[in-house]
Amino acid sequence: MFDFGIGYTEMFVVAVVAIIVIGPKDLPRVLRAFGKTVAKMRGMAREFQGHLDSAMKEAGIDEVKKEFDNIKNSANIVEPVKKSVVNETKKQEDDFKKLFGDVPDPNAPRADAPKADVAKVDPPRPADAAAAAASTPAAS
After folding, report:
1. What share of the chain is helix, strand, coil (3-state, %, to 5)?
2. Could you tell me if 11 and 2 are in contact, meaning their C-beta atoms sit under 8 angstroms apart?
3. How far is residue 135's CA from residue 129's CA, in Å, rounded to a whole number?
4. With contact defined as beta carbons under 8 Å apart, do 19 and 27 qualify?
5. How far is the C-alpha of 14 from the C-alpha of 27, rounded, in Å?
6. In what helix (H) or strand (E) does residue 124 lie, and over which residues does it extend?
7. Which of 39, 41, 15 is nearest to 28 (CA)?
8. CB under 8 Å to 111, separation ≥6 — which residues?
9. Contact (Cβ atoms closer than 8 angstroms) between residue 29 and residue 22
10. Is the entire prediction scored with pTM above 0.90?
11. Does residue 2 sit in helix, strand or coil?
């Protein structure tokens, strides 16, 4: 109900403080005056909004706003067109596959490519080379 950041407990505290400060005798008169003030403020805001609307119509901004809304609504047309293009592309791809079969992935290795029979050999580590040199007799 109230959307200005005050909950029911805060309103209750304000009411209790108002009863204590203003007094129960004068509280109805104060609340009535407060209500009239709020009604005047709403009326002034409504009148100001009316003046702004009439100024917009005189300046032609209303037409610009309508054109902007039309452009915004026409953006919704893009999605159905996109879907139809995607469906047509999928249909063309299926027709191509029916005629020519599946196209192999260009990154996949080819079956007719020559295979290397070279065994992978790890290079010797420096500690292994020193141990091999120590175990072989030195030629003089």
Report:
1. 70, 0, 30
2. yes
3. 10
4. yes
5. 12
6. none
7. 15
8. none
9. no
10. no
11. coil
